């Protein structure tokens, strides 16, 4: 399996999370194992028929295939394979040909012009510039109810915020179809990473006449989806899985070799291992119980990625969490090294900051942002007790109860139990009530701020520190934990405004903001940076990870028989 070593490998095919992370939240790794396959010998059953068909796993149901409404990584993955924006990412995470043949920017950095190629939708309609105009307007139209539209386009595309606030009509958005094959985009300010942003699912085109024809049914069933990407959805058995097949109308169809990709929703890793051993699936994630057993197997691999797991503290939902000492105590109390080496045992590493390691380099340098900043995260039982005692004194109590929200899958349950034990054993008087809910429900609660403390996750939407650090500006689209700091807001505004075209000052400002977020305010508590151990059938070639966009890219994949 080819891997991208230029940028830290992103995402695993278990297709979970994220809240962003890229979901506005996401929770712990995949699923529980109880009794798995005992053999470490490679099964020869997979793809025995010799055709270009593969079967992979997914942790959860797809909540939606509507690019304006998708907020989770499962939706990102499969909408990303069935839709194509202005660009795609190649195996080195470089922008490569998509719907745009070329893109140029004005000298002042405010106007982008994209020339589109001749391409068709899977119903035979031409892909036009209006498909992008309609999609982007729809994403910021308050009537749509998009979470990511206002977040990603706001402050980027001219008038996006005014549209999403209902102050002007969607037609005032700074995007214009000059003609069928020319798209013009006006920005609010120069955005160094704008071209990279267009890979994100919210920027995908949408066929207006098709949406209007389908109405509320749009993107809810396989027969109500439309594709302009390498694959199209042919089946969708809700709760069980789905199938995508090669889109013969895709402009670059001759490159696509896979004919069929089946995805099965499998929540238990032991089930996935057994199905892999029996040849019924071609990929499955492994947890700590199976890693040592399969480490020498030809199909074993560890996929590392800049995906951060952390605690969100809702400062309005629980009085104790409004206290900075309480938040610091919780962060200090977690032994991150034991978590990744014993509980996870999948290659994950302790977090050192909110911007992950091996994600983005300093301007004009190969020095990693994390290396330049240094670690801002520490585990210390002594410091945890010190801050906890201060918090109890300030709160005027000797006992505190906090609800911890997380996913209801196996490894998530184990990590949530670990967090509960760590916190209750080290912080006298603290009771952690664990609330385990299905992924879709946790995403809903996260978005609605219906949590006290959450085991969350975030993955990058583009290669820039801003994709992590702009989450916590006051009233920001993903700041659903009621954190507010005028100083922090000012730093992020400077980084993206005054210093937008001064890279060194911009990154220095991001570093200052990260220190404020973690060292002074402890608004969140980074826990670990993700990696996934998995089995992937060795005769499936050309699948690779990318820094943003779909978790895995199948356009160039094939089965070697």
Outline:
It contains 17 helices and 21 strands.
Tally of structural domains: 2
How much of the sequence lies in strands comes to 15-25%
Largest beta sheet, briefly? 7 strands, mixed
What is the residue-mean pLDDT, rounded to a whole number? 89
What is the CATH homologous superfamily assignment of the largest domain? Answer: Dipeptide-binding Protein, Domain 1
Please estimate the helix content. 25-40%
End-to-end separation: 15 Å
Instruction: Write down the Rg.
Output: 23 Å
Number of helices: 17
What general outline do the C-alpha atoms trace? globular
Output the CATH topology of the largest domain: Dipeptide-binding Protein, domain 1
Q: How does the helix and strand content classify structurally? A: alpha+beta
Please identify the top-level CATH class of the largest domain. Alpha Beta
CATH architecture grouping of the largest domain: Alpha-Beta Complex
Q: How many β strands by DSSP?
A: 21
- The poorly predicted ranges are 1-49
Membrane topology: Lipid-anchor
Main location: membrane
Region (Disordered): 27-52
GO molecular function, one term: peptide transmembrane transporter activity
């Amino acid at each position: 399996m080819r891997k991208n070593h230029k940028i830290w490998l992103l995402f695993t095919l278990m297709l979970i999370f994220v809240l962003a992370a890229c979901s506005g939240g996401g929770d712990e790794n995949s699923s529980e194992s109880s009794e798995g396959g005992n053999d470490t010998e490679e099964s020869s059953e997979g793809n025995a028929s010799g055709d270009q068909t593969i079967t992979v796993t997914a942790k959860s149901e797809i909540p939606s295939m509507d690019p304006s409404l998708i907020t989770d990584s499962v939706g990102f993955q499969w909408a990303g394979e069935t839709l194509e924006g202005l660009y795609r990412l190649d195996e080195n995470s470089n922008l490569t040909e998509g719907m745009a043949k070329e893109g140029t920017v004005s000298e002042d950095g405010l106007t982008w012009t994209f020339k589109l190629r001749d391409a068709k939708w899977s119903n035979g309609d031409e892909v036009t510039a209006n498909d992008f105009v309609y999609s982007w307007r729809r994403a910021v139209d308050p009537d749509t109810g998009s979470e990511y539209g206002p977040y990603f386009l706001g402050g980027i595309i001219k008038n996006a915020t005014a549209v999403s606030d209902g102050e002007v009509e969607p037609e005032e958005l700074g995007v214009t179809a000059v003609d069928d094959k020319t798209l013009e985009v006006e920005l609010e300010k120069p955005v160094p990473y704008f071209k990279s942003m267009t890979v994100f699912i919210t920027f995908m085109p949408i066929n207006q006449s098709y949406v209007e024809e389908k109405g509320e049914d749009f993107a809810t069933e396989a027969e109500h989806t439309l594709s302009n990407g390498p694959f199209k959805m042919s089946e969708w058995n809700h709760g069980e899985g789905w199938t995508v097949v090669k889109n013969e109308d895709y402009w670059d169809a001759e490159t696509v070799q896979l004919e069929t990709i089946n995805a099965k929703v499998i929540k238990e890793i032991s089930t996935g291992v057994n199905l892999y051993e029996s040849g019924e699936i071609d990929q499955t994630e492994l947890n700590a119980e199976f890693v040592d057993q399969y480490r020498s197997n030809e199909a074993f691999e560890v996929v590392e990625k800049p995906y951060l797991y952390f605690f969100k503290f809702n400062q309005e939902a629980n009085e104790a969490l409004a206290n900075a000492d309480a938040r610091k105590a919780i962060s200090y109390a977690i032994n991150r090294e034991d978590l990744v080496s014993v509980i996870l045992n999948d290659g994950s590493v302790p977090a050192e900051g909110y911007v992950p390691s091996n994600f983005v380099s300093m301007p004009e340098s190969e020095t990693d942002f994390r290396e330049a900043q240094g670690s801002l995260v520490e585990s210390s039982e002594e410091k945890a007790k010190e801050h906890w005692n201060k918090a109890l004194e300030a709160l005027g109590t000797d006992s505190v109860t906090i609800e911890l929200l997380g996913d209801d899958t196996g490894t998530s349950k184990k990590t949530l139990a670990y967090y509960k034990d760590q916190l209750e054993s080290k912080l006298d008087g603290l009771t952690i009530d664990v609330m385990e809910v299905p992924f879709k429900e946790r995403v809903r609660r996260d978005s609605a701020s219906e949590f006290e403390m959450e085991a969350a996750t975030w993955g990058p939407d583009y290669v820039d520190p801003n994709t992590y650090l702009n989450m916590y500006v006051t009233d920001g689209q993903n700041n659903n934990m009621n954190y507010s700091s005028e100083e922090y807001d000012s730093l992020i505004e400077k980084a993206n405004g005054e210093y937008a075209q001064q890279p060194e000052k911009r990154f220095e400002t991001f570093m200052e903001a990260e220190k404020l977020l973690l060292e002074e305010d402890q608004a969140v508590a980074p826990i670990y940076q993700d990696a996934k151990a998995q089995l992937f059938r060795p005769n499936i070639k050309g699948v690779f990870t990318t820094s943003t966009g779909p978790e895995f890219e199948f356009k160039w994949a094939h089965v070697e028989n």
